[in-house]
Design brief:
By secondary structure, this protein is mostly helical. The protein has a domain of about 70 residues.
């Protein structure tokens, strides 16, 4: 998990937040829902591999819980569809399921 978190920090946090690996680990371990939703959104927004990054941190149930539901940003909406297709095999129009 430690390696995944350091990659997420590099990919998703561009010095816009002061955050470190211990903070992320603690909030995940403590099941801080608002932080986890924030982290999932940052991963969806900035990660090159959102499905793999999410899978490395959370269970499938947690991913479903933390994925945003009402998203205005089309790019994020498409990335959510991709995550659902890849991790849950939920067919979405225009998205092919892949295995991570």
């Amino acid at each position: 998990m430690q390696n995944s978190i350091s990659e997420i920090i590099k990919e998703c946090f561009w010095n816009d937040y002061k955050i470190d690996e211990k903070t992320i680990e603690k909030n995940i371990k403590d099941n801080d829902v608002s932080f986890n939703k924030f982290l999932v959104y940052k991963i969806l927004s900035n990660s090159s591999f959102p499905s793999a990054r999410l899978k490395s941190l959370y269970s499938k149930e947690q991913i479903k819980e933390y994925l945003p539901t009402n998203v205005i940003d089309k790019r994020i909406s498409e990335r959510i569809k991709l995550v659902l297709s890849v991790l849950f095999r939920e067919p979405k129009e225009g998205v092919r399921p892949w295995k991570v």
